[in-house]
Structure formats: structure tokens, C-alpha cells
Design the sequence.
């Protein structure tokens, strides 16, 4: 499983836009989000689909599939539960 390429991230742009609205997150490079000085979320592509590695427990990365809109909504919901509400609608 490799880190997501720019072309793969193009397909996740609506999800990336939602993640950018969380004030606690900083996007150091496209698709790689930090919380403070710690890596919090990044993306991988695989023949099985697109995946996000995210520190939902604050310590270890959890791999979440994000190939479908439903899976992407579930990721945003999990991030919201961890970090609180994003800015904007």
C-alpha cells in the first residue's frame, strides 16, 4: 500500500475540503494533516481502494477505507467525534 498520489488525492478533494475546516488540523502537504506537531491523518491507495490512516485514539493510526462517499462521511464523523465541530457548514 503506497501513499496517495496527487491524482488519487484529486478524487478525494471534497473530503480534503471538509477536513481542512477542522481548526485543530493543519495540512502540512496536500492530504497530510497534523494536529499540533504530531501526524494525525494521511491517505494511501491500494488496489482494494483508498484508505486513510488516522489517529482516532490519539496514539496509534487506524486504517479506514474512504473509497465511497459513505465511507468518507464516516471518517469525517469519527474525526468530528475526536476533534469537535469544524468551522462552517
Sequence:
Amino acid at each position: 500500500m503506497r501513499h496517495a498520489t496527487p491524482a488519487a488525492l484529486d478524487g478525494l478533494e471534497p473530503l480534503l475540503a471538509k477536513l481542512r475546516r477542522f481548526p485543530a488540523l493543519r495540512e502540512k502537504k496536500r492530504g497530510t494533516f497534523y494536529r499540533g506537531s504530531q501526524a494525525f491523518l494521511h491517505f494511501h491507495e491500494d488496489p482494494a481502494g483508498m484508505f486513510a490512516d488516522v489517529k482516532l485514539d490519539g496514539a496509534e493510526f487506524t486504517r479506514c477505507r474512504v473509497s465511497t462517499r459513505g465511507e468518507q462521511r464516516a471518517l469525517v464523523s469519527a474525526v468530528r467525534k475526536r476533534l469537535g465541530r469544524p468551522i462552517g457548514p
In short: Residues 21 and 40 are 15 Å apart (CA to CA). The beta strands are 2-3, 25-29, 32-35, 38-46, 49-54, 62-65. The chain has one domain: 2-83.
